[in-house]
Amino acid sequence: MEPQTIIHPIPPLYDGDCRILILGSFPSVKSREARFFYGHPQNRFWKLLAALFEEPVPQSVDEKRSLALSRHIAMWDTIRSCAITGSSDSSIRDVVPNDLSVILDNSRVERIFCNGATSYNLYKKFIYPVTGIEATKLPSTSPANAAFSLERLLAEWSVIKEYTVQE
């Protein structure tokens, strides 16, 4: 399979009340098809978020959007466009980073968390020099990160709870 150059098809998820931003690297094929974040059924992101906040696992895009925003969580990815083969982060080349100012200028985001090493490394390389905002690397929720059980992910990701609010 040849790499394809793809422009990110999913708009950022945020509102004026968001206090944290979770960045992935680039949407998987399934997420691009679904036009929403973490669309692959094996990705543990939505199960993890639901477990962290003791909520039912959201099924529809509207339920997912509602869960994130109700906890003041903004979401996007570090990459605006890149050459990629399928969904493989290791194949990513020719990165153009996203401009996070649309979220940062229109929300109350005070902390940025990266879902996995690829997101974090690209953030540090391309985006941190622009924003000056440190990011925290969290273990990837991808099924490719088999070393982390859901329980281990929960333990690591629980750090986001201190920055989220239920109103």
Description:
The protein has 167 residues and is α/β, with parallel strands linked by helices. It has a single domain, classed as 3-Layer(aba) Sandwich (Uracil-DNA Glycosylase, subunit E), CATH 3.40.470.10. The protein has six helices and seven strands, in the order E-E-H-H-H-E-E-E-H-E-H-E-H. It has helices spanning 29-34, 45-52, 61-70, 101-104, 117-131, 150-157; strands at residues 4-7, 20-24, 73-77, 79-84, 93-97, 111-115, 135-138. The protein has a four-stranded parallel sheet. The longest helix is centred in the last third of the chain and has 15 residues, at 117-131. The chain is globular.
Question: What structural class do helix, strand and pairing data support?
Answer: alpha/beta
Question: Helix proportion of residues, in percent?
Answer: 25-40%
| Tally of separate helices | 6
CATH class: Alpha Beta
**What is the CATH fold-level name?**
Uracil-DNA Glycosylase, subunit E
Rounded average pLDDT: 94
- Describe the strand arrangement of the main beta sheet, using strand numbers: 3-2-6-7
Q: Determine Rg (CA atoms, Å).
A: 15 Å
Strand content: 15-25%
First-to-last CA distance: 47 Å
Number of strands: 7
The dominant shape is globular
